[in-house]
Amino acid sequence: MRASFVFSEVVTGLRRNVTMTIAMILTTAISLGMLGVGLLFVRTIDKMKVNYLDDVEVTVYLTEDISANDKDCTGEPCASIRQSLESNQAVESVVYENRDEAYERFKRIFEGQPELVELARPQALPASLHVKLFDPARSEVILQEYSGQAGVAKIDDQNKFLDRFFSFLNAGRNVMFVVALFTALAAVLLIANTIQVSAYTRRTEVGIMRLVGATRWYTQLPFLLEAVVAGVLGAVVGIGGVTALKFLALDRAMAATGGIVPQIEFFEVLVVVAPILLGVSVVISAVTGYVTLRLYVRH
Amino acid sequence: MIRLDSVSKVYKTSTRPALEGVSVDVDKGEFVFLIGPSGSGKSTFLRLLLREEVPSRGRVMVSNFDVAKMPRRKIPRLRQTIGCVFQDFRLLANKTVAENVAFALEVIGKPKRTIDKVVPEVLELVGLDGKADRMPNELSGGEQQRVAIARAFVNRPLVLLADEPTGNLDPDTSQDIMLLLERINRTGTTVLMATHDHSIVDSMRRRVVELHLGRVIRDDKRGVYGVGR
């Protein structure tokens, strides 16, 4: 097989059909871009699960009475709530945080915003019991058992918040995947169509090739490669798009969450997502090309 | 070299067979005219040899190939032993004369070294040396047919099939093309030429196989186009 011959045939084919080629590349790029962003969402969710799930707590906020008078949780009802929690099977540890400690923590969290700290008074912050569970997903148990009990003002389950957040990200991911799927379908049809047009415009060449005894590989490889080259270019554009999106939008959006959502690293785009997009693109375009040639182009 | 043994071909879309009980034997190095009116089965005859069609009945042999029975993947090998020339030349308009000829070798994977050597040789043989870099549309009809013949012959086929190669050419040019085909025939290549051209057949005095409605009605060793026709 003479590589230079096949290569020049591919280049001629793509240039002859330049508008179709561009359409093919763009549709592929959009489809792959969507897939790429979806994959980044998946990774972000996974990272967050690792980062947070271990630290997820159930916070039992105590009433104003306790917050104001019980500095070390020795009086009733604080002591008995604490004891009951500590003896619970599902609970790993319980830490009491009184009003002053809560205020210290508040100041630490918001040290970047002095005006907020200025406005806050320790009196506004309740004392609380920070309950760490062996299995954060089973926070429901605590919620049911202690809600409404004397001395308990409110129970806050971080897991609930994370769940809401994850389902938001999951929905975003699903939207990306669905759009990717439909654009992928459009891309596949475009590839199939382009190959048919390409084979038609080159029917004289192909006719001669068959007549002089060129093998099927020789007659069809240029068409197949045309599809694959367009697929690869589409993947490159798609990867470029995902990269641009990361730097121009996602980075800022993630930063706006104040570190709750971890940043997407550039290497993730390049090392993890890019090879997947490239692989998917090559496989899909090659298979589409092969099937089209089998079905529509006579050898 | 070519043997058809009781070959029939019925196309699905037609009630009358395109060929019926055709048996023809062509030896190596022969020059054979295949004549007959349109629809007599000449094209089907040629297409069977190239395995563009498969016979409904009978056996087709070209060289050592059992054409009808051979597996598809061997078809390229068969076609590499057969050169083809057509009435409409079928040159690639965007390639030069030399590139058109080289194309036939490139697509069967011949090394560039070989191509660079044989293409000028064959162009000289057909009398086109010096026109290697011309485009097909800069050439006369006769010259274009020479390019097509060069392309068909460049891989030194055992058989050359010519389907009305002079159909688009004036008598003088046709005569030149016939001289060229004779020259190729003299190198030992079997030539099978389908034609309507009375004067050529009559002046060459070669073997004539006449088809009519899919049957062989005449096979003369040194024939003419036809008497009283």
UniProtKB/TrEMBL annotation, chain A:
The keyword Membrane appears for this protein: yes
Signal peptide residue numbers: none
InterPro entries per UniProt: ABC3_permease_C, FtsX, FtsX_actino, FtsX_ECD
Superkingdom assignment: Bacteria
Pfam families: FtsX, FtsX_ECD
Domain called FtsX extracellular: residue spans: 56-155
Topology within the bilayer: Multi-pass membrane protein
Gene Ontology BP terms: cell division
Keywords: Cell cycle, Cell division, Cell membrane, Membrane, Transmembrane, Transmembrane helix
Transmembrane segments: none
Domain ABC3 transporter permease C-terminal: 178-293
Locations listed in the record: Cell membrane
GO cellular component: plasma membrane
Family: Belongs to the ABC-4 integral membrane protein family. FtsX subfamily.
Subunit text: Forms a membrane-associated complex with FtsE.
NCBIfam families: FtsX_actino (NF038346)
Function according to Swiss-Prot or TrEMBL: Part of the ABC transporter FtsEX involved in cellular division.
Protein name in UniProt: Cell division protein FtsX
Species whose genome carries this gene: Prauserella muralis
Lineage: Bacteria, Bacillati, Actinomycetota, Actinomycetes, Pseudonocardiales
Automatic annotation (TrEMBL), chain B:
A molecular function (GO) term: transmembrane transporter activity
Example GO BP: cell division
Subcellular localization: Cell membrane
Pfam family, one: ABC_tran
Membrane topology: Peripheral membrane protein
Main location: membrane
Alphabetic keyword roster: ATP-binding, Cell cycle, Cell division, Cell membrane, Membrane, Nucleotide-binding
Function: Part of the ABC transporter FtsEX involved in cellular division. Has ATPase activity.
Entry's family note: Belongs to the ABC transporter superfamily.
Protein name, entry field: Cell division ATP-binding protein FtsE
Organism: Prauserella muralis
